[in-house]
Specification:
The structure holds four protein chains of four kinds. Chain A is α+β, with helices and mostly antiparallel strands. Chain A contains five helices and five strands, in the order H-H-E-H-E-E-H-E-E-H. In chain A, the strands form two sheets. Chain A has a three-stranded antiparallel β-sheet. Chain A is elongated. Chain B is 71% helix and 0% strand. In chain B, helix 12 packs antiparallel against helix 13. Chain D contains four helices and seven strands; from the N terminus they run H-E-E-H-E-E-E-E-H-E-H. The termini of chain D are far apart. In chain D, strand 3 and strand 4 form a beta hairpin. In chain D, the strands form two sheets. Chain D has a five-stranded mixed β-sheet. In chain D, strands 6-7 form a two-stranded parallel ribbon. The chains are: A alpha+beta, B mainly alpha, C alpha+beta, D alpha/beta.
Chain lengths: 152, 423, 383, 159
């Protein structure tokens, strides 16, 4: 062993190097903690969060009840109910159930939707106290979630 | 009765020496309370320092800056269900944490927080402390054995072997410090107060005497004491990634918190030994160099002023807090805390109080230096393996400390030696 | 729920009987244990601290994903593959897509391939950082975990920006990538790479030189190159033992042949070497990402594939170099929209077998270190 | 290589083809161990990549085992396939690669195929007492061993 290495070993240079790293990091500017919910994370626009049924700007249903999302879903958790309108011979959406409890958030239903009506929002707070609430009905999907705001 | 009670205040000795039983009781209670508060503060301090070293914030929500987090945790632990494993030896299982806490607190009987601030002064003080603090291992072994479970057993076996091995290196390095006490007077002392007074007489802390021998001895001691208190990087008995929680695995709730209390108390205990032996105990910086009434006054104002500065910092943070409803309890808490600190600081500036308090202040400061080291080690180092731990204890620390003892002895008697040789 | 407890009634424990009656101690490590990386259960036979024998009991996380595949369409199975090795979901996705594309005989456009390379290499970085943090934590150093996670977070942010999810990304689709790079993608990736290089040196400062770390890892869990091959081990563990083999070089896929990078190898085949190999792999990954970003061509990112994917009947095996080792997909199609069989060659599962050989004769603390160095993910072991 | 193998084993090499650039050999059950051993020792296919099976319930020999071998020298993969009936025993290759141990246990667990000469053939992923082999085609996706679940987990159903 070389003298230098021996000296380094005796004077615990390796240990002090490590100690220096941790000591340096004590400076408050290194802190990366995000104080949720006072501070909200930046969510990317492509984020796949809470699903939502979009409506046309004039308030009419954008969903055509085609069932493409039902077919696309790997977990088979979307249930679409529809009736055929007598006059226009078009399907009209009646119910739309989305079971969040089994959702993989893979986004396949969103991709499959022809009128681009099913949308994954950037909302990520979906915690619930019971399993019953995980099945979202049409009303909930159309309204979206009302978020409680916190300030720092 | 009252006369004798009050007359102690004018005496210049510890209550134990004065033989005043009521004051002993008061001191015991004060020490117990002080250590408990210290443990609570230490818990917060450790989490905070660790958090910042790990680029986190640490406790922030309970109380101002999370100061009340340990209190909340303590309440939670008290309310938790107290479980004992089916096959456990109930009596021993119940007794083990009490034993550990008892021994940890017992060692504080001789710790001098100041010239008069010790419960008593024993002429074998250091020996007593080493002896009592090493009794703690018994409780750990009891806990591991009584749990009737594999992890605690392994943990307690490790702990037993580890504490016994490091005791020796610790004792050897203590011997070198004790030899230094005999330098000026020719008669050494084992009394904790005597050791500090010897440092005062010799005009230097023992870390710096016979440089670098004192430093090496303190280094050995400060490594051995980490092992002795089962802290990282020597925390094998409770290595959480290997043995889940070691000897504490089966404990929960209040009994677990007793172990926790004991661990931190033991840390305080060994740190106070180190402070007393090498860092001049309660002595303020440069007691001989910067002597004189003016310096005396200046240094006695430091404790009060520093507490006031802390309080002012809290009040300053309070003014910087956003005025919203969610933050109000926290903000008010911080303000009250700051005000209380300020008041405490003011009280410490009073003439009668400040002379008595300043010893404690310097002592605590030095102890917290060691506590900071504990935390710093814990965040930085990986854990040793069992065989490596033993190797370090027996093959590195023990020879070094024996070497230091021999070297100290040789230097101490160098004149006699020279005389012997030249004659 | 029945009224009586389902565990053994207490009377069966003889009074006064303890496990201490035997000379050999059987220690059940896991499935709930801080350092078995999930729900691995290792039964150790101990003589004091020494490990005389051990057995891995796995399957606690078995979800039957291979069975699920047979009941989904080719497209629908895409998100499920992320759940094999959930710490490196992008790699899983890539392997599956490549295998199905092979069956379909579809060539992914160059831009799509480059994007895939960038994302998989980022994923390798993220996976190695997770490994670093947890491995070092197992050995007792708490802090590197937080540094590693801090830096991993920036990579997860890129994933979030690119495909909308951080962990189980479902990043790629059969035929290419679902999305093109988002705005500011290349700047962000460049920034992450630039920031990461000094961070890796910082880990080295904190860990590599440390004598405790060296003592804990050098000579621990040693395995020779021949043994590695006999155990069918791949990935950094194989390379740590001095075998210079990497699927990215041996059978380049996804235009890995376009990039210049080295395969680091170790000499001694112990835990320390594997640590160095993985650290160096992180540097090489950054090198690949920089090259791919520079050469990122314009064009489409996804090939033209039918909406309902029905590969012609046949079978194909496609392997990629996942962060844990060779990740292979053996897919069998019978010409319908559903896979007939999807077989995954899980690197963690196969690497874990060597634990017995590596840990026997060591101490309890070594077992933990070796589990860490094998870098297993129980989602992949149990599937 | 193929010619050489055919010379030695004759009719037992049923097919040697390449599909999508991937070579595979279909061999008779009786010679699969010899063929694998020969590939390993003579032709440099020293690495084992994977062992698994596919279930074709409609065929006469419903189980198809496959071994994937790799040659680091040639950088080439080869797949050896062979067909079995359920009652047939497959020769184990744990004597060639220790690592085949768990892979074969998994095949046993998932398909119920027995390996001759395997040192420790137990279930690996499923519980030891479980009945049924999940990756067979006649095993439903939501099927479970109800009795086992009720006995060991204390719940009515795992679904």
């Amino acid at each position: 062993m070389k003298v230098g290495e021996l000296l380094k070993k005796i004077f615990l240079v390796d240990l002090f190097k490590g100690l220096a790293v941790t000591f340096r990091h004590q400076h408050p500017e290194h802190v990366v903690t995000e104080q949720y919910p006072l501070e909200r994370p930046k969510i990317a626009p492509r984020f796949r969060g809470m699903p939502r049924l979009l409506k046309n700007p004039d308030g009419s249903d954008r969903c055509t009840a085609c069932g493409a999302c039902v077919l696309a879903c790997p977990e088979d958790l979307i249930k679409v109910g529809s009736v055929r309108d007598e006059k226009t011979k078009k399907k009209v959406l009646t119910t739309f159930d989305f079971d969040l409890g089994r959702c993989l958030f893979c986004g396949l239903c969103e991709e499959a939707c022809p009128p681009e009506c099913l949308d994954f929002t950037t909302e990520f707070e979906m915690g619930l106290y019971s399993r019953e609430g995980t099945v979202l009905n049409r009303q909930q999907l159309e309204d979206g979630v009302q978020r409680k705001e916190f300030k720092k | 009765m009252i006369q004798s009670f009050l007359s102690y205040l004018h005496s210049n000795v510890t209550p134990g020496e004065a033989g005043s039983l009521p004051w002993v009781v008061i001191y015991v209670l004060l020490v117990f309370l002080g250590i408990s508060v210290g443990v609570i503060f230490m818990n917060w301090f450790e989490r905070k320092v660790m958090a910042h070293m790990q680029v986190r914030l640490g406790p922030m929500r309970v109380g101002p800056m999370g100061l009340l987090q340990p209190v909340a945790d303590a309440i939670k632990l008290l309310l938790k269900e107290d479980l004992a494993p089916t096959g456990a030896d109930k009596l021993v299982f119940w007794f083990a944490p009490i034993w550990v806490v008892m021994t940890a607190f017992c060692s504080f009987i001789v710790v001098p927080f100041g010239r008069t601030h010790a419960i008593t002064d024993m002429n074998i003080g250091v020996l007593f402390m080493l002896g009592v603090s090493s009794l703690g291992v018994l409780g750990v072994i009891m806990a591991g054995w009584a749990s009737n479970s594999a992890y605690p057993l392994l943990g307690s076996l490790r702990s037993g072997a580890q504490m016994v091995s490091y005791e020796i290196a610790m004792g050897m390095s203590v011997i070198s410090a004790i030899m230094m006490t005999s330098m000026a007077t020719g008669t050494g002392t084992l009394s904790m107060i005597g050791i500090v007074q010897a440092q005062l007489q010799q005009h230097r802390w023992f870390v710096f005497s016979f440089f670098p021998l004192g430093l090496i001895a303190m280094g050995v001691f400060s490594i051995a004491m980490v092992a002795e208190t089962n802290r990282a990087p020597f925390d094998l008995p409770e290595a959480e990634s290997e043995l889940v929680a070691g000897f504490m695995t089966e404990y929960s709730g209040f009994r677990w918190s007793l172990f926790f209390l004991a661990e931190y108390t033991a840390m305080f205990g060994v740190s106070s030994i180190a402070t007393t032996l090498w860092l001049g105990g309660w002595l303020r910086p440069f007691p001989n160099l910067l002597a004189g009434p003016n310096w005396e006054l200046a240094f006695s104002l430091v404790p009060g002023l520093s507490v006031i500065v802390l309080g002012a910092l809290c009040l300053f943070r309070y003014t910087r807090m956003p005025r919203i409803r969610e933050m109000r309890p926290e903000a008010v808490g911080l303000a009250v805390f700051g005000a209380m600190l300020g008041l405490l600081g003011l009280v410490q500036l009073l003439p009668g109080v400040r002379e008595r308090v300043q010893d404690i202040f310097w002592f605590t400061l030095k102890v917290f230096f060691f506590m900071y080291l504990y935390v710093w080690y814990r965040t930085t180092f990986p854990r040793y393996r069992f065989d490596q731990l033993m190797k370090i204890g027996w093959k590195v620390l023990l020879p070094i400390s024996i070497g230091v003892v021999i070297a100290t002895a040789l230097i101490a008697v160098r004149q006699e030696l020279f005389a012997l040789v030249w004659r | 729920m029945k009224d009586e407890p389902f565990y053994e009634p207490l009377e069966e424990v003889e009074p006064g009987h303890t496990f201490l009656d035997s000379t050999e101690l059987t220690l059940n490590m896991g499935p709930q244990h801080p350092s078995t990386h999930g729900v691995l259960r290792v039964v150790l036979k101990l003589d004091g601290e020494k490990v005389n024998g051990l057995e891995c009991i796995i399957g606690y996380l078995h979800r039957g994903i291979e069975k699920i595949a047979e009941n989904r369409t080719w497209v629908q199975f895409g998100p499920f593959v992320d759940r094999f090795d959930y710490t490196a979901a992008v790699s899983n996705s890539l392997g599956y897509c490549l295998a199905v594309e092979k069956l379909l005989q579809v060539e992914v456009p160059k831009r799509g391939q480059y994007l895939r390379v960038i994302l998989t290499e980022l994923c390798r970085l993220a996976s190695h950082q997770l490994w670093l943090g947890t491995h070092v934590l197992d050995i007792g150093a708490v802090t590197p975990l937080f540094y590693a996670f801090r830096d991993r977070e920036t990579i997860l942010n890129i994933f979030e920006g690119y495909c909308g999810a951080r962990l189980t990304n479902h990043a790629f689709r059969i035929g290419g990538c679902r999305w093109d790079a988002y705005e500011g993608f290349s700047q962000e990736v460049t920034k992450v790479c630039n920031d990461l290089m000094p961070k890796i040196d910082e880990y080295a400062d904190l860990i590599t030189g440390n004598r405790i770390w060296k003592q804990r890892t050098k000579g621990v869990g040693r395995i020779s190159g021949e043994d590695c091959i006999a155990y069918a081990i791949t990935g950094p563990v194989l390379r740590g033992s001095g075998v210079r083999w990497d699927v990215r070089k041996a059978q380049p896929y996804c235009s890995y042949g376009d990039f210049e990078f080295d395969i680091p190898i170790g000499a001694a085949g112990d835990t320390f070497d594997r640590y160095l190999v993985r650290l160096e792999e992180m540097r090489q990954s950054i090198r690949i990402i920089r090259q791919a970003l520079e050469g990122l061509p314009e064009g489409p990112v996804i090939a033209r594939v039918p909406k309902v994917i029905k590969p012609p009947a046949g079978e194909a095996y496609c392997a990629i170099e996942a962060p844990k080792g060779e990740l292979g997909y053996f897919v069998v199609s019978d010409g319908t929209a559903q896979p007939y069989r999807v077989r995954v060659r899980p690197p963690s599962f196969i690497n874990l077998q060597a634990l017995e050989k590596m840990a026997k004769g060591g101490l309890v603390a070594d077992v933990v270190a070796i589990i860490g160095t094998l870098d297993i993910v129980l989602g992949e072991v149990d599937r | 290589m193929v010619e050489e193998l055919k010379q030695v084993h004759g009719e037992a090499i049923l097919k040697a083809e390449s599909y999508l650039g991937q070579n595979y050999l279909v061999v008779d059950r009786s010679v699969c161990h010899q063929v694998i051993e020969r590939l390993r020792n003579q032709f440099g296919y020293t690495s084992l990549t994977d062992i698994s099976a596919v279930h074709y319930p409609k065929d006469e020999l419903p189980f198809e085992m496959f071994w994937i071998l790799y040659s680091m020298a040639k950088e080439d993969r080869v797949r050896i396939k062979t067909r079995f009936a359920e009652a047939d025993e497959v020769p184990s290759i744990t004597d060639l690669w220790v690592g085949a141990n768990w892979l074969e246990r998994e095949v046993y667990d998932m398909f119920g195929l027995r390996f001759a000469g395997h040192p420790d053939l137990r279930r690996i992923l499923m519980p030891d007492e479980w009945t049924g082999h999940p990756l067979r085609k006649d095993y439903g996706a939501e099927q479970q061993d109800q009795a086992w679940v009720q006995k060991n987990l204390g719940i009515e159903s795992g679904q």
